[in-house]
Amino acid sequence: MMGHILWPDQYKLQHLVIDSCIYGEYLDILQKLPYLRTLVMRNCTIDDTHSTLLLLSKFKTPSSLISLTISDCSFSLKNLTLLLSPIPTLLHLKLISHRGILDSFFHGSRLEELIRAKAPTLVRFEFFLSYNYQENDRFINLESLMDPFRTPFWLNDKRWFVTCAYVPKGSTIWLHTTPIRDCGIERLVRCEVSWIDNQCRLTQRSIDEIIDNTDDVTLTTFGLYYNQIGDSGAQYLVDILQQNTTLSILNLKDNQIGHEGAKRLAEALRTNTTIKEIQLWNNAILSSILDQLKKLDSRLKF
């Protein structure tokens, strides 16, 4: 990519869109395009080596870049620090990342610390992070992810509002600012917790819409079959059922839900009078305890 840029002819370039680059090329772009204001790229590869720090130490003139968008970033939060270091006047940052691990990108306090230190002038911060449940993962509590984003820094100082969700299709965790536009994310049904309160709601609202604190009234029947959500996924639905007043039929067949997950669903039905039926055919429930579960609530169908 860098070999095709004719620097003398593009010296006053203000907007640049590229695919990917390495960190040295990123610094070269900032150094040789002093009028650059907006940079959009898919990813930047950064090595955790002494040579990377040496490259940054040679960067003498801070860039005047005001907007940076990275549409498929795979680097660590530590490496984001390296990206932000040469652009102290940044006003807009947008990050989209599908993470392989539930790392420090998901920690609101770490993000807050980084922004205070490396992007103090930032006015607009948009991010969308996703993480797919792995086979041996423990239950990921949405509230624990949301709490650090309910501090005065996020809600009052910056007014950046964050939402966290469990998406049954694919057993995925989403964490993102809201609204967030142009990130190519499919409109999926999800169990969602926001900065507003600690209520878990079922919604299919597009993530580019402003959130409210109501259930999606259009969701009266939810078919969630063949998704292998297991007992962990069932727990998110338990949180939904304890307060949802719109859902009447929930189809959970073929989802590897065991007796613990089914028992929690039955317990949630004690306070839910709207649900007429939860379909649990072909799950991982032992036949020896089916009668016991049926006695807990007749709306459970096996």
TrEMBL record:
Q: Per its UniProt record, what SMART domains does this chain match?
A: LRR_RI
Against SUPFAM superfamilies, the record matches this protein to:
RNI-like (SSF52047)
Q: Does the keyword Ribonucleoprotein apply?
A: no
Looking up Gene3D superfamilies in the UniProt record yields: Ribonuclease Inhibitor
Sorted UniProt keywords: Cytoplasm, Cytoskeleton
Question: Protein name, please?
Answer: Uncharacterized protein
Location in the cell reads: Cytoplasm, Cytoskeleton
Task: Cite the Pfam families for this sequence.
Answer: LRR_6
GO CC annotation: cytoskeleton
